[in-house]
C-alpha cells in the first residue's frame, strides 16, 4: 500500500529536478549567443585568427556541455520510464542506474559530432560571412562604419537611411557597382518597376552616375545591418 506510493513521490521530485536541468539549456544558448557576438565584434575590429579561434573553442565547450546535459536528461528519463513500467517494490539505486546509462551514452560520443552540431555550424557560417564582408569592404571604395567609436555615430546615421524610403534600413543591400546601399525591398521594387516599363533603373543616391542597376548586383550588407542593430541597442539604453 504505502510501498506503492513511495516510488511516485520520489519520481515527482526527479521530475522537478529534470525541469530545472532543462532550464540550463537557456544558459548554454545565451552563452553561445555571446560567444558568437564577441567573435563577430573581434573580426570587425580587425582582430584575426587567434582571438576568433578562442571563441571557436568556447563554442565547442558549450556544444560539449549541451551534449552532456542532453545525455544526462535522456538517461534519467529512460531509467524513470523503465522503473515506472516495472513498478518496482523497493526504492532503487536511481543514481547508480542513471550513471550507468549516462556512461554508456558517453562512450559512443565522437569529438567530431560537436563540430557538426547545429549551433556550431551556424557560428562557422556567420564568421565566414563576416570575413567575406570585410574583404569586400576592403576591396570596395567605401570603408565600413565603425560604430564602436562615438564619433562615427552621427556620420553613420546618414548611412543608415535608405535613399528611397528615407527611413532607417532594416535589410540593407549594397550595390556592387557603385557601392551605395538601400533597403532591400525598396530597391528591388524600384528596379522591377523600371524594368517592367522597359526602362533602365538609375541609382537613387543623389550624385551617383550609375544608370543601369540590376537586382543581381545587390548583395546583403551584413556589416551595415549589424551596425544598425548595435546603434539601435545603444540608443535604447
Ligand atoms: Zn549609386
UniProtKB/TrEMBL annotation:
Keyword Metal-binding: yes
Record Pfam families: zf-Nse (PF11789)
GO biological process: double-strand break repair via homologous recombination; protein sumoylation
The UniProt record lists the keyword Plastid: no
Main subcellular location: nucleus
One GO MF term: zinc ion binding
SUPFAM superfamilies: RING/U-box (SSF57850)
Stretch forming the signal peptide: none
Gene Ontology cellular-component annotations: nucleus; Smc5-Smc6 complex
Protein localization: Nucleus
Residue span(s) of domain SP-RING-type: 147-233
Pathway(s) of this molecule: Protein modification; protein sumoylation
UniProtKB keywords: Metal-binding, Nucleus, Transferase, Ubl conjugation pathway, Zinc, Zinc-finger
Family designation: Belongs to the NSE2 family.
Protein's name according to its UniProt entry: E3 SUMO-protein ligase NSE2
Phylogenetic placement of the source organism: Eukaryota, Metazoa, Chordata, Craniata, Vertebrata
Amino acid at each position: 500500500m504505502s510501498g506503492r506510493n513511495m516510488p511516485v513521490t520520489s519520481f515527482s521530485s526527479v521530475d522537478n529536478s529534470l525541469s530545472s536541468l532543462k532550464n540550463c539549456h537557456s544558459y548554454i544558448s545565451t552563452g553561445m549567443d555571446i560567444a558568437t557576438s564577441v567573435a563577430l565584434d573581434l573580426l570587425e575590429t580587425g582582430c584575426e585568427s587567434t582571438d576568433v579561434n578562442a571563441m571557436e573553442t568556447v563554442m565547442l565547450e558549450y556544444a560539449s556541455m549541451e551534449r552532456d546535459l542532453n545525455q544526462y536528461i535522456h538517461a534519467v528519463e529512460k531509467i524513470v520510464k523503465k522503473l515506472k513500467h516495472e513498478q518496482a517494490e523497493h526504492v532503487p539505486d536511481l543514481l547508480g542506474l542513471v550513471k550507468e546509462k549516462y556512461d554508456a551514452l558517453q562512450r559512443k560520443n565522437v569529438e567530431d559530432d560537436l563540430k557538426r552540431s547545429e549551433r556550431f555550424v551556424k557560428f562557422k557560417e556567420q564568421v565566414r560571412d563576416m570575413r567575406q564582408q570585410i574583404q569586400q569592404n576592403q576591396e570596395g571604395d567605401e570603408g565600413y562604419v565603425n560604430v564602436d567609436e562615438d564619433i562615427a555615430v552621427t556620420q553613420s546615421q546618414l548611412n543608415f537611411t535608405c535613399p528611397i524610403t528615407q527611413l532607417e534600413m532594416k535589410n540593407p543591400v549594397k550595390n556592387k557597382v557603385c557601392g551605395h546601399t538601400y533597403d532591400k525591398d525598396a530597391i528591388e521594387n524600384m528596379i522591377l518597376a523600371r524594368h517592367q516599363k522597359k526602362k533602365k533603373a538609375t541609382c537613387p543616391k543623389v550624385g551617383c552616375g550609375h544608370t543601369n542597376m540590376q537586382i543581381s548586383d545587390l548583395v546583403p550588407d551584413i556589416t551595415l545591418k549589424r551596425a544598425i542593430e548595435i546603434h539601435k541597442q545603444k540608443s535604447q539604453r
